[in-house]
Amino acid sequence: MKPYCFVLMPFGKKKDEVGRLVDFNHIYEGIIKPAIIDADLISIRADEEVVGGIIHKPMFERLMMCDYAIADLTTANANVFYELGVRHGVRPHSTIPIAGSGTRLPFDVSPLRTILYDIDPLGLPSNFKKVREILTKRLKECRTPSDDSPLYQLLTDFPRPDIKHLKTDTFRDIIEYSQKMKGILRVARKKGNDAVAEIEKKISIVNADPAIVIDLYLSYRAVKNWGAMVSLVEKMPPPLKQTVLVQEQLGLALNRLERHDDAEQVLKDLISNYGPSSETYGILGRVYKDLWLKAKASGNLAATGYLQKAIDTYLQGFEADWRDAYPGINAVTMMEMKEFPDPRQKELIPVVHYAVKRRLKSKTPDYWDYATLLELAVLSKNKQLATEYLGLSLAAIREIWEPETTAKNIQMIKEGRRIRGEDVNWIKTIEDHLTAVANP
Q1: SS (H, E, C) the chain
Q2: What is the mean pLDDT of the chain?
Q3: pLDDT for residue 316
Q4: Total Cβ atoms within 10 A of residue 400
Q5: How many angstroms separate the most distant Cα atoms in the chain?
Q6: What pLDDT is attached to residue 49?
Q7: Which tens digit of pLDDT belongs to each residue from 227-248?
Q8: Predicted confidence band at 48 (pLDDT cuts at 50, 70, 90)?
Q9: Average pLDDT over residues 361-382
Q10: 262-268 contacts: CB < 8 A, separation 24 or more?
């Protein structure tokens, strides 16, 4: 059986300590994972982003039990350094640090033999082939180990844990079970709500790997079972329940259940406790948007207030991270609903467009990238571009609620103050296409 190599690193795009944007998913896929495969090992990536950054029991098990480990120190991420310290405390050798060139490593880890990779202006590795070969060679050298943990290098008489006496077979079974359950959930999501609910019956929520619980949680979101999401949160262990990811998605689910006040409170508490976030503000903006739609439909005078709150909240989300176009497109779309033109809309549309275009250049595009460009094309009444982005959006759908959200946005734009005459017909056709996909 091939040994495991545990990878400690951030997920997605993060800024390093000098402000460079680094695409860690590309670092993993282009350098780390291929090097591990070439060294005839099995890669396990830390699920810290998936489970909100908490240090949980399976994380400690992986740190202790995996024969090899790679730690990316580029952003001086506190979790990665903590995990590296745990690893160095229990494993005298076979831990390899890597980092983006130019990274200013803290004094305590600067003596480590760190492999450096170059980062281009888009945050991507530019010398991945060379670094991959170096990393593969270092992993193979670890088969004839020498101490790389500063603890064991400096304290030569420090007692060494006997890893062989630990439950290595049980650990391998746990890893294989986690991977198997994630595969089963992927299949269940395609079958629908009943299939996902059946999987929950087979999982002990309190004792399961948090990554599996989060996978189940997001599977309920994929099949639009908002009530099951809320119920699942109540069953989660407190540390997992309080993570940002779980609370954000709880706010989304509560809002879909029309428990708007509860959703607003959950999301406001998140902002108060963890600071501004484009994701949290984006979900909170949706709460006010739905309240506006309700008030507008019933002729409630509060509609104007909710519309302004939605615009302001989406704008706060966009200002929290200009790279995230989602709250930006929602802000300019909601501005279209105002009785009088909002002067900020004209300034914001090019910025939102630029944000999406940058995302398209530096990552694999997803549904929301194309849907954002589709909405921008509708706002500018460009039929040709709108038709092109409609096709690209439909080809990138991941979850059935995505086109439904876009259809509602386009319906609002169609009913706004600037769309008139012949434009109404082709925009209605685009709206109908999206609605049909969302409700087959």
Answers
A1: CCCEEEEECCCCEEECCCCCEEEHHHHHHHHHHHHHHHCCCEEEECCCCCCCCCCCHHHHHHHHHCCEEEEECCCCCHHHHHHHHHHHHHCCCCEEEEEECCCCCCCCCCCCCCEEECECCCCCECCHHHHHHHHHHHHHHCCCCCCCCHHHHHCCCCCCCCHHHCCHHHHHHHHHHHHHHHHHHHHHHHHCHHHHHHHHCCCCCCCCCHHHHHHHHHHHHHCCCHHHHHHHHHHCCHHHHCCHHHHHHHHHHHHHCCCHHHHHHHHHHHHHHHCCCHHHHHHHHHHHHHHHHHHHHHCCCCHHHHHHHHHHHHHHHHHHCCCCHHHHHHHHHHHCCCCCCCHHHHHHHHHHHHHHHHHHHHCCCCHHHHHHHHHHHHHCCCHHHHHHHHHHHHHCCCCCHHHHHHHHHHHHHHCCCCCCCCHHHHHHHHHHHHHHHHCC
A2: 86
A3: 96
A4: 16
A5: 84
A6: 45
A7: 999 999 999 988 889 888 899 9
A8: very low
A9: 87
A10: 263/287
Measure the CA–CA gap between 408 and 293, rounded to whole angstroms.
11
| pLDDT score at 104 | 74
Give the Cβ contact number of residue 275 at 10 Å. Answer: 9
Taken in order of first residue, the domains within the chain and their CATH numbers are 4-163 (3.40.50), 167-223 (no CATH)
Structure tokens at 361: 């250049």
Higher pLDDT, 203 or 150: 203
pLDDT of residue 298: 94
Contact 223, 197 (CB under 8 A): no
Contact 325, 362 (CB under 8 A): no
